# Entry
Amino acid sequence: MSIDAKNYVIPQPPQAAIPVAGTDKFFPVRRLWCVGRNYVEHIKEMGNDVREPPFFFAKPADAIVPDGGTVPYPSLTKDMHHEVELVVALKGGGRNIKPEKANDCIYGYGVGIDLTRRDLQIASRDIKRPWEVGKAFDHSAPCGPLKPAAAIGHPSKGRITLSVNGKVRQDGDLNQMIWNVPEIISKLSEMVELAPGDIIMTGTPSGVAATVAGDKIECVIEGVGKLSVTIGPPLK
Ligand code: MN
# Structure
């Protein structure tokens, strides 16, 4: 449905978007999905059963923070954690996508952080409430510039690291994912119809830890790119 801008009763909200590396182009973001529990060592550090399949949750698209940005320390938490993740950006979609067709849906890749209010996430988990309070807060999804698959291919291995103030905290490899990217797209497309503009954060390796105001966070995925953000003071 196409609606003329003058017929909206409030100004149209801005379109979330991620820059394409080395260009003046942007990838418009429709929805942001995240995969839980996709690296064995992270599942162990969270005290969960490695035999359980990963699962999905979402963040609002407007939670994206660009490379070089500042994340205000969020409200309500005393334990915000970093989770560095490979980001997959979709140019295609559909329902019940077969893994062997999934790469055809991919525009490109980037580096992201699934920021988590760990204290609130665990409290929600323990009383079987939804995870939004722990996962889907403002500024909770820093994403670096995307690189098209046409330029870098489809990375299935490569070092993934996150450093805080120059000290490496998370250090894994994309080949440690339990479910690979085509399998993630296939599984997610059984749950919802995927569409161009959807992005997916594909889970984090071990080493998640608290981050505080003043921290400078740097993430690198070999062959994909970089992301730097600063944690700022809470908003007044
Ligand atoms: Mn995560």
